Amino acid sequence: MVAALVPPPQFDDATFETYRADPAYPSQQEAKDRLIVFSGGGAPAERGGLFRRAKKAPEMKPGVYLDGGFGVGKTHLLASIYHAMPARRKYFGSFIEYTALVGALGYQKTVELFRGADLLCIDEFELDDPGDTMVMTRLIGELVPTGTKLAATSNTPPNALGEGRFAAQDFLREIHAMASSFETIRIDGTDYRQRALDGHAQVLDDAAYAQVLTDASAAGTASDDDFAGLVRHLASVHPSRYIRLIDGIDTIGIRDVAELDDQSAALRFVAFVDRAYDAQIPVRATGEPLDRVFAPEMLTGGYRKKYLRAISRLNALTHS
Q1: How far apart are CA 282 and CA 142, in angstroms?
Q2: What contacts 272, CB < 8 A, 6 or more positions away?
Q3: Which residues pair with 222 in a beta bridge?
Q4: Cβ–Cβ < 8 Å for 107, 142
Q5: For residue 59, is pLDDT > 70?
Q6: Which of 43, 202, 262, 294 has the most beta carbons within 10 angstroms of its beta carbon?
Q7: How far is 220 from 297, CA to CA, in rounded Å?
C-alpha cells in the first residue's frame, strides 16, 4: 500500500512545463508560478529588462491547498509538485488511500511511517466523513512540526447545496486545527476534458459493443460486466481496493447502464470512475448514457461536485 503512494500512471510525466495554463484565466499561470516556488524552484524569472533584479520569493507556508473546479488541472499540478520537489521521502495518494492505510496499520504506526517525510500530496481530500477528516487532520498536525510539506486538493462537503466549484472555506473550516499551515491557491477555469467533447458520453448499440470488445480483447485485456452486477460487486469491496479490480485491464466494458437512485451505490461508482480515470482506461457502454447515470436530485445535493466530476471523467473515458 505504501509503494502505491505515487502519482497515477496518467501523471507519471506531469511537470509544470506540461501544464498548459489557459490565458483566459490568469490564475492558472499564477498558481503554476507559485507552486514552482513551493517546490523549491525559486522565484519565476522576471520579464522586461536585461538587468532587472529578480524579486525575492515571498515566504510560503508548509502546506498549499489547490482550490478550483474539476477539470482545471489540480491533480496535474499536484503531481508536478511531487516530481519537482527534490525530496528523499515523498508520497502521493488519494484521501481514501491514506485513510485505508490508517485502517490497516493503525493511527500511531501510520504516524511513525510518515514521520520525517519531506512531502505528502493528498488528492481529493474528503470532507464528507467527519471521522476520516479528523483522522487526517490529526495526522497532518503530527507531521508539520517535523518539517513535512503538504499539498492538497479537496471535494465539497455534504450540505454545501449548490456548491461544486470552490471549496477553500469548507476545507479550512473542516481542518480548522491546521488551517493556518495552508496557503490557498485558487485556480479558475473551465473543465479541460469538455473542451474537445460534445458534452455527452458515447453509447454503443449491442452489435457495436460486441465488436469493440472483440477488438479490444485481441489487442489486450477487456472486461465485460452487466452494470447492475458491477454496482453490486462494488458494494462488497472497500473503495481503496478498486484499483485492484482494474489492474491489468485495457478496456472496461459495461452493458445495460441504468440510472442510479441510491446514494451509497452512486458514491461507490464515483470512486470506481476515479480509479479508472487515474489509470486512463477507456470505457465502452450500452444502455443509458453514462453522463446521465446519476439521478437528477443527486446533482443538486451535497455531493454535487463529486457527481459532476465523475460525469466529466466518464465523458472523457467513453471518447478515449
Answers
A1: 40
A2: 230, 234, 239, 242, 245
A3: 251
A4: no
A5: yes
A6: 294
A7: 38
- 283-301 pLDDT, tens digit per residue, is 999 999 999 999 999 888 7
Whose cell is 500500500? That residue is 1
CA–CA dist 173, 130 (Å, integer): 12
With helix as H, strand as E and coil as C, how does the chain read?
CCCCCCCCHHHCCCCCCCCCCCCCCHHHHHHHHHHHHHCCCCCCCCCCCCCCCCCCCCCCCCEEEEEECCCCCHHHHHHHHHHHCCCCCEEEEEHHHHHHHHHHHCHHHHHHHHCCCCEEEEEEECCCCHHHHHHHHHHHHHHHHHCCEEEEEECCCCCCCCCCCCCHHHHHHHCHHHHHHEEEEEECCCCHHHCCCCCCCCCCCHHHHHHHHHHHHHHCCEEEEEHHHHHHHHCCCCHHHHHHHCCCCCEEEEEEECCECCHHHHHHHHHHHHHHHHCCCCEEEEECCHHHCECHHHHHCCCHHHHHHHHHHHHHHHHC
Residue 199 predicted with pLDDT over 90: no
Residue 308 confidence class, pLDDT cut points 50, 70, 90: confident
With 90 as the cut, is the pLDDT of residue 95 above it?
Answer: no
How many whole angstroms separate alpha carbon 150 and alpha carbon 186? 16
Instruction: Please check whether residue 251 is in contact with residue 285, taking contact to mean a CB–CB distance below 8 angstroms.
Output: no
pLDDT at 217: 95
Give the pLDDT band of residue 161 (cuts 50, 70, 90).
Answer: very low
Report pLDDT for 115.
94
Averaged pLDDT for residues 119-135: 82
Report the alpha-carbon angle 207-209-214, nearest 5. 95
Residue 211: what pLDDT? 96
Q: Please state, in angstroms and rounded to a whole number, the distance separating the CA atoms of residues 221 and 229.
A: 19
Angle at 270 between CA 267 and CA 274, to 5 degrees: 145
